[in-house]
Amino acid sequence: MVRNSRWRQCFRFGSLLALAAPNAALAQAALDADTINKLGSVVRWSGVVTSLLVMIGAWALLRLLARSVDAFSSQFSSRRLTLQKLSTLAQFFVYIATTVIVMLLSFRLDDTALALIGGTIAVAVGFAIKDLVASFIAGLIVMLDRPFQVGDRVTFGGEYGDVTAIGLRSVRLQTLDDNTVTIPNSKFLSDVTSSGNYGALDMQVVMDFYIAADQDIDEARTIVNEAALSSRYVYLAKPVVILVTQWMSDYMTGTRLRLKAYVLDTRHEKSFETDVNLRVLRAFQAKGILSPGSRARGRPAPAPPARKSQRERTAAPSG
């Protein structure tokens, strides 16, 4: 009797579970359907098409703005940096205005809608846009703190080039090898950035020249100074400085002449270096100023022994 009573209790419990499972599934399906209906009532479907048109118009406006800035920058080079700064500010305004307009057109934003949208988006997209939001906030901080500006020639993370755009998510850098490097804005909050000109067109350029220890330092210094001052790319409003120091390696010694001069425009940095180096090297060669180790490399080979004439060979006693 006891065994039969236990079997009856187990059977009743299993029956209750079997009946509860479909009810739970139906309740969950009803809850999901109710959520979908609420979400559908929040979306203003008539405004979705208008929102798409607004986004297309914003994209066309940004393209027109970029082309206009490029055209005016090529015609008015002295105003190039100012135009690029204004273009960056205008892009931020267009992005923010487009986002607000699309939200207002596409959703009915009452209290219930805000709670529903906030909960759904926060859970579903929160982790996906974490880095994007961090880069967006970092972009605003970069715009306000201004560690660099559009048009600056900067060094960051082993990359060296011109800042061409500061966007919502990233900064674009055009290297001297004509490569476009995209760097997330969040990287600039923790890493070190070096700006060569910081909003100015001119920039200091450093060049090193080495001569042997026994060469005429004054003459070499004069040659370097004249080569810098006579270059078509030099910015004469700022001083030209030449520092002289002793240079040593494991096998030789010499003198280092470090030239510090300013180039007119950062775009001519490498042309300036090439022009000055060509002038200095040609003058050193004309004046006979040697670099460290050049005398050892250029030492003439010993002359071969003179051949004896036929008469001397016949006159020589035979062994």
As a percent range, the share of strand residues is: 15-25%
Q: Termini distance?
A: 139 Å
- Count up the helices: 9
Low-confidence spans? 16-21, 23-27, 298-319
Task: Please identify the structural class as seen in this structure.
Answer: alpha+beta
Order of SSEs, N→C?
A: HHHHHEEEEEEHEEHHH
Q: If strands are numbered along the chain, what order do they take across the biggest sheet?
A: 4-3-2-1-5
Task: Output mean pLDDT.
Answer: 80
Q: Could you estimate the helical fraction of the residues in percent?
A: 40-55%
Return Rg in Å. Answer: 38 Å
In CATH terms, what is the fold-level topology of the largest domain?
Alpha-Beta Plaits
Give the biggest beta sheet. Answer: 5 strands, antiparallel
Using the 3D structure, state the CATH architecture of the largest domain. Answer: 2-Layer Sandwich
Q: What global shape is seen?
A: elongated
The count of β-strands is 8
Relevant terms:
319 residues; SH3 type barrels; 3-stranded antiparallel beta sheet; single chain; alpha+beta; 5-stranded antiparallel beta sheet; Alpha-Beta Plaits; elongated
Folded structure, characterized:
The protein has 319 residues and is α+β, with helices and mostly antiparallel strands. The protein has three domains: 45-128, no CATH class; 147-195, SH3 type barrels (Roll), CATH 2.30.30.60; 203-297, Alpha-Beta Plaits (2-Layer Sandwich). Helices cover 54% and strands 17% of the residues. It has helices at 2-42, 45-75, 80-106, 111-125, 130-145, 217-229, 269-287, 294-297, 310-315, and strands at 153-156, 159-166, 170-175, 180-184, 194-195, 203-212, 241-248, 253-263. The strands form two sheets. Strands 4-3-2-1-5 form a five-stranded antiparallel beta sheet. The N and C termini lie far apart (139 Å).
